[in-house]
Amino acid sequence: METHRAHCLILPYPVQGHINPMLQFAKRLQHEGVKVTFATTKFLFETVDEVSASISVETISDGYDEGANGIVQKIYLPRFQKVGSETLTELVLKLQDSGRPIDCIIYDAFLPWCLDVAKDLGVRAGVFFTQSCVVNNIYYHVHKGLLKLPLEATEVDIPGLPPLLASDLPSFVSNPGPYPATSQLVVHDQMEKIEEADWIFFNTFYRLEEKVIHWMAKILPVKTIGPTIPSMYLEKRLEDDKQYGLNLFKPMTNACMSWLNERSISSVVYVSFRSLAKLEVKQMEELAWGLRASSYHFLWVVRESESKKLPKDFVKETFGKGLIISWGPQLDVLAHKSIGCFITHCGWNSTLEALSLGVPMIGMPQWTDQSTYAKFVKDIWKMGIKAQPDENGIVRRDVIGQCISIVMEGEIGQEIRKNAKKWKDLARQALEEGGSSDENTKDFVSKLIQS
Ligand code: UDX
């Protein structure tokens, strides 16, 4: 008798930093024999540069099929909830009618209404968090009223975490004022019905956040399944698994990789702040002059929309020393032997990617959860340092130069590289046969097939 092949529908929030980890998880599930349908919004599907051939993609609507440019979150989110609920329901019913019923909807924690859709349809549901366990725990404590806002103390103590300064906390906790709709979504809505989901997936691995995972797993059915890095970079298991596979921007792969091939080992500083972070003009200038003054080559991702902030003639004047690209194949770049360090905004994917590929980091966090990762990179994982801004929040050129020297040279740099190697090995082990994330993924699949 043919065994039932479970079918999961996976729905990310439509931005690159959420698509990448969920798409990679989709591929892992496929590798374990699960059938996966990946859902995106119509607008996103029509604008993507490339879709991996190994993934079956269907669309739903967020209510903005012509694009949501200029629409504020306060308007966008409720419309996505309304139109998204209807069109997700239609999609699940369509798949059912065509003989491909869905066994489980794995939805982005930014789309908590998917849980109601799943329940109404009698389908099981898994919620996928694209942030670290540390950050999830912080939001959980705020949402449950265990950590009161506005913060009263300059230092907070949360179970499973080391003592954290207010400035180490996500911006939606330390300063929720400027973006009320996004704060509500990130801190509260994500956590609202977390107990009702059948599974809770975190893109992290046990050894990286041992204490806090242990603490959260006591109260919630948490499964750590990361790092969701395409396995060819870590284990060489899935042959077709090059990059993530659903790019919103076209990477300048040839120009970038042939330039890196000309550089010597550990001689290049890689700089990227995408995909959501925007730098102030003053910060772009300081960064530019800091890179130019350093004795190392640099590869800098500057989105087209940001390139006008570069100092006049900068590209021309730094030709040869630096290469500026609008989007790159980040995993290939981080895995390249010429890369010596990564100046990063500390988005969770970039942090996990650098950590898993053993690249030392210089953290320049901008907002949301990035300050927390910069703190952990520096003080807990000891895989990099944090560039200290001045009283106006700008990291000055001389500080950038000093940070590059510290990480690329000397004793601190050596220690960081030693730790980088350790984390790279531990990340790989988590995904290898019998590793914690591999076991968690297999356990999910076996439960899905059984019931
Ligand atoms: C955001 C948040 O910062 C992050 O913490 C959250 O958990 C997910 O959403 P984002 O700001 O986009 O993400 O940064 P990051 O999480 O680092 O994701 C960026 C992704 O784009 C990475 O997977 C990176 O590999 C990719 N990228 C970036 C490229 O492929 N090419 C580039 O040139 C730059």
UniProtKB/TrEMBL annotation:
Listed EC numbers: 2.4.1.-
Pfam families recorded: UDPGT
Keywords: Glycosyltransferase, Transferase
Keyword Phosphoprotein in annotation: no
Chain segments annotated as coiled-coil in the UniProt record: none
Class of the enzyme per the UniProt entry, highest EC level: transferase
Region annotation Disordered: where it falls in the sequence: 430-451
Family: Belongs to the UDP-glycosyltransferase family.
Name by which UniProt lists this protein: Glycosyltransferase
